[in-house]
């Protein structure tokens, strides 16, 4: 897929991108290179994998990482109950070696996301989500897949990929990732969107939203992200949730009451909500200073 073709697909999916993002995606796809995407939680890293799966017409295979994740949950597992049943049924077999070999065949192998992604008859998009939440041991375990597109199973041996998945790894930077993993990947960092991009996202995802409210929401969110006292900065998803909540209530202009009643859709802890009310940052995003340019008309600031 060429860069122009990919851009067309991203446009069709209403995904807001810049030239750098589109270029990195296109080149990574052409080279068959895994892509590591870092950024704060909620900036749209996971969404890229979903959009790429749609753009390429591929299935999305997702591995959600967490502390303690191991190969039995990520790569494969043996169907022990079925193996035990086979042993009981064939316990009088004369060829014990053949029985043992049969127990470790495809018939008893349970594919997990990593193995499924390389054994699929058609190429897939493999999302390894929040790799920074997994242990360093699991990160090291991934290196064979990322570099050689193969995995090793002790009972069977090396299994090369039937098809090459487009691999997307995401990280919220909860811990540093190893240089070995980084070397095997192309890299993309996604920051929080600026005002213009936030407006473009709101326009693409909620085209029916009132223009004035859209501008007020975007400026308010930008202001909150710039407030160092806010512990959990609102993500793009939370911006959309807040706008949807305001729209559902029929709000056309931000007021203190509207903000108070819907704050839980934007901020997710009581300290941040109290801070927002104390500073008035979410009134329109202008901080109460430059009302002529913010779209609020200079009203409802107290």
Outline the structure in words:
The chain is of the alpha/beta class and 302 residues long. The chain contains 15 helices and 9 strands. A 5-stranded parallel β-sheet has the order 2-5-8-1-9, sandwiched between helices. Strands 3-4 form a two-stranded antiparallel sheet. A two-stranded antiparallel ribbon has the order 6-7. Strand 6 (150-153) and strand 7 form a beta hairpin. The protein is elongated, with a radius of gyration of 25 Å. The N and C termini lie far apart (54 Å).
Summary keywords:
disordered C terminus; 302 residues; two-stranded antiparallel sheet; alpha/beta; 15 helices
SSE arrangement:
Layout: H1 3-12, H2 19-31, E1 35-38, H3 45-56, E2 60-64, H4 71-74, E3 76-78, H5 80-89, H6 96-103, E4 109-111, H7 113-119, E5 125-129, H8 136-148, E6 150-153, E7 157-160, E8 166-171, H9 179-183, E9 186-189, H10 195-205, H11 211-226, H12 236-248, H13 256-262, H14 270-279, H15 291-294
């Amino acid at each position: 897929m060429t860069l122009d073709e990919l851009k067309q697909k991203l446009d069709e999916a209403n995904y807001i991108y810049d030239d750098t993002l589109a270029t990195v995606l296109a080149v990574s796809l052409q080279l068959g290179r895994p892509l590591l995407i870092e950024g704060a939680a909620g900036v749209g890293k996971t969404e890229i994998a979903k959009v790429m799966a749609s753009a390429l017409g591929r299935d999305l295979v997702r591995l959600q990482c967490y502390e303690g994740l191991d190969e039995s949950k990520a790569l494969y597992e043996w169907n022990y109950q079925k193996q035990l049943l086979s042993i009981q049924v064939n316990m009088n077999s004369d060829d014990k070696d053949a029985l043992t070999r049969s127990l470790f065949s495809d018939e008893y192998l349970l594919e997990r996301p990593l193995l499924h992604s390389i054994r699929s008859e058609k190429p897939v998009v493999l999302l390894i989500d929040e790799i920074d939440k997994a242990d360093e041991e699991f990160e090291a375990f991934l290196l064979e897949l990322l570099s050689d597109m193969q995995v090793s199973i002790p009972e069977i041996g090396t299994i090369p990929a039937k098809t090459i998945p487009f691999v997307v790894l995401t990280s919220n930077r909860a811990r540093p990732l190893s240089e070995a993993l980084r070397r095997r990947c192309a890299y993309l960092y996604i920051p929080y969107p600026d005002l213009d991009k936030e407006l473009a996202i709101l326009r693409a995802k909620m085209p029916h939203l009132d223009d004035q409210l859209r501008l007020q929401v975007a400026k308010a969110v930008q202001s909150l992200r710039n407030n160092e006292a806010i512990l959990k900065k609102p993500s793009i998803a939370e911006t959309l949730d807040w706008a949807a909540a305001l729209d559902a209530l029929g709000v056309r202009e931000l007021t203190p009451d509207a903000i108070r009643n819907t704050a839980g859709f934007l901020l997710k802890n009581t300290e941040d909500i109290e801070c927002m009310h104390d500073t008035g940052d979410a009134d329109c995003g202008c901080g109460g200073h430059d009302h002529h340019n913010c779209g609020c008309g200079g009203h409802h600031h107290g």
